[in-house]
């Protein structure tokens, strides 16, 4: 009987689950509002109920190999516990794995969401031909995952691949983590909006950018992207700096790890066409390795499904 696995991807806003067979075919996907403000116990109930749904629908045709999840936060993996999760209020110290195992009556594999997204891209996405890759997810913040020799690299305490907190400008903008000049403070969707507000405050913004903030109560990075596509100088400047910042980080990772593949995913990827030139230029400028032996820098192929693919893959390893 062909095997399948259930992958769970829990972020600060959405909860996604997928039934995926051992060949990488997505059989079914469920996506709902996570409603994390209700607390971990309520979210765990949703996770368990939807795992049961998927198992009932597909367990008659396929054999369930296992269940895995990626959760947005720093994990104590051996204990199956969340250490800290800025986007999941009330989850600090919560024993996720044991609570889910109680709810579904079987063992359960737990990982950080950036790690499972990296594993998903390695399995069925842009990194499928590489044994060594770095994955960056560009969204509200910047997360990441590292695959070395085909395996997730956790580091000593499970905190490896916090790629959003690589310092790219030592005297730069304050990041939410408390450091100055982090990649996340320049290349995330939040950073684009914050940068636009700064240009307005310092009276350096273009007329079109000023008009955007006057006409819209809640400006998002995608709105500024649309201006950049129209050639607005202030918007182009912000996305160019985003690309430069990514290029600095990627060049550093090439020199440290000598890996061949970098995959970028997340909600900010639709703006790829307005930051890619500055990103590739910066990588080549800063990395003699890149100039001598060019590395692959790709957009995610799995998009928002990378997490559920990687979480399911945990059960096939």
Structural domain tally: 2
Total beta-strand segments: 12
Oligomer: single chain
Let me know the CATH homologous superfamily of the largest domain: ATPase, nucleotide binding domain
- How many H/I helices? 11
Q: What percent of the residues sit in helical stretches (DSSP H or I)?
A: 40-55%
SSE topology string:
EEEHEEEHEHEEEHHHHHEHHEH
Q: Compute the gyration radius: what is it?
A: 20 Å
The end-to-end span amounts to 18 Å
Named CATH architecture of the largest domain:
2-Layer Sandwich
Which parts are unreliable, with pLDDT below 50 for 5 consecutive residues or more? none
* CATH class assignment of the largest domain: Alpha Beta
CATH fold-level label of the largest domain: Nucleotidyltransferase, domain 5
Mean pLDDT: 94
Q: In which order are the strands of the major sheet placed?
A: 3-2-1-4-7
Biggest sheet layout: 5 strands, mixed
Question: Main traits of this protein?
Answer:
317 residues, Nucleotidyltransferase, domain 5, 2 domains, 5-stranded mixed β-sheet, 40% helix, 21% strand
Task: Give structural notes.
The protein has 317 residues and is of the alpha/beta class. The chain folds into two domains: 134 residues, ATPase, nucleotide binding domain (Nucleotidyltransferase, domain 5, 2-Layer Sandwich); 172 residues, ATPase, nucleotide binding domain (Nucleotidyltransferase, domain 5). Helices cover 40% and strands 21% of the residues. The protein has eleven helices and twelve strands. The strands form three sheets. A five-stranded mixed sheet has the order 3-2-1-4-7. Strands 10-9-8-11-12 form a five-stranded mixed sheet, covered by helices on one side. The chain has a two-stranded antiparallel ribbon with strand order 5-6. Strand 9 and strand 10 form a beta hairpin. Helix 1 packs across helix 2, helix 3 packs across helix 11 and helix 7 crosses helix 8. It is globular, with a radius of gyration of 20 Å.
């Amino acid at each position: 009987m062909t095997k399948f696995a259930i992958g769970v991807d829990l972020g600060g806003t959405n909860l996604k689950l997928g039934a995926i067979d051992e060949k990488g075919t997505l059989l079914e996907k469920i996506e709902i509002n996570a409603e994390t403000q209700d607390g971990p116990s309520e979210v765990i109930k949703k996770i368990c109920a939807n795992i049961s749904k998927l198992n009932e629908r597909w367990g008659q045709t396929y054999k369930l190999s296992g269940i895995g999840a990626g959760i947005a936060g720093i994990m104590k993996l051996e204990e199956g516990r969340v250490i800290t999760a800025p986007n999941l209020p009330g989850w600090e110290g919560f024993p996720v794995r044991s609570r889910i195992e109680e709810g579904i009556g079987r063992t359960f594999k737990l990982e950080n969401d950036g790690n499972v997204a990296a594993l998903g891209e390695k399995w069925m996405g842009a990194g499928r031909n590489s044994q060594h890759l770095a994955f960056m997810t560009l969204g509200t913040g910047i997360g990441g995952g590292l695959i070395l020799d085909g395996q997730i690299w956790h580091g000593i305490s499970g905190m490896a691949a916090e790629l959003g907190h690589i310092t790219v400008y030592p005297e730069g903008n304050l990041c939410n983590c408390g450091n100055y000049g982090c990649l996340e403070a320049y290349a995330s969707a939040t950073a684009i909006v914050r940068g636009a507000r700064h240009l307005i405050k310092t009276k350096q913004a273009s007329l079109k950018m000023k008009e955007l903030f006057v006409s819209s109560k809640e400006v998002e990075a995608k709105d500024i992207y649309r201006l950049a596509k129209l050639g607005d100088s202030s918007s182009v400047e912000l996305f160019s700096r985003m690309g430069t910042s990514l290029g600095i980080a990627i060049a550093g990772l090439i020199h440290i790890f000598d890996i061949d593949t970098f995959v970028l995913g997340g909600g900010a990827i639709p703006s790829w066409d307005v930051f890619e030139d500055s990103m590739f230029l910066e990588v080549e400028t800063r990395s003699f390795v890149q100039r001598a032996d060019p590395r692959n820098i790709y957009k995610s192929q799995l998009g928002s499904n990378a997490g559920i693919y990687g979480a399911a893959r945990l059960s096939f390893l």
